[in-house]
Amino acid sequence: MNDRAQALAALLIRNFHEAELKPFQRPPNYDARGVRLAPGTAARKLGASYDIVEPGKCTCPYHLHFAQEEMFIVLEGHGTLRVAGELLPIKAGDVMFIPAGPEYSHQILNTSDAPIKYLSISTMEQPEVCLYPDSGKFMAETERRADGGRDFEAIRKAGEGDLDYWHDEP
């Protein structure tokens, strides 16, 4: 490839088979490896991740997004989509569409005896607020800066430490 083609490839193409997977674990329920694919690309409104979840485990807590839509594509294996209080079987080739909003709390569970591998695609809408129904907590965050930090991020339990709207205001 010429220099221009190489620069374009670096901005536009990621191969999840060649990406370095990082562990995302919290025993006893969470055991996965994954990689976020969009950072460093030209993408501004789409995020993508590749995840491998071990048998009997899940990647993240049951949650919902108020801003972002997500899509999951099962590449290998099978498991269960916990969504809106129901358990739905999923398998290789399934594509799941999860709209934003309180009706669609979701979580992918590996209920099989082999790893499940899937792609996650999201609209990366910011700012974002996520709610975690099992624990009663929420997360509010702004877009990541170039240095990887955020201008604002808070993870709290609703009703704990809440302040009056006028607290510390002149």
Automatic annotation (TrEMBL):
Keywords: Metal-binding. GO terms for molecular function: metal ion binding. CDD domains: cupin_SPO2919-like. SUPFAM superfamilies: RmlC-like cupins (SSF51182). Residues 52-121 form the Cupin type-2 domain. It holds the Pfam family Cupin_2. InterPro entries: Cupin_2, GPI/OXD, RmlC-like_jellyroll, RmlC_Cupin_sf. PANTHER family: CUPIN TYPE-2 DOMAIN-CONTAINING PROTEIN (PTHR35848:SF6), OXALATE-BINDING PROTEIN (PTHR35848). This is Auxin-binding protein. It comes from Roseateles aquatilis. The lineage of its organism: Bacteria, Pseudomonadati, Pseudomonadota, Betaproteobacteria, Burkholderiales.
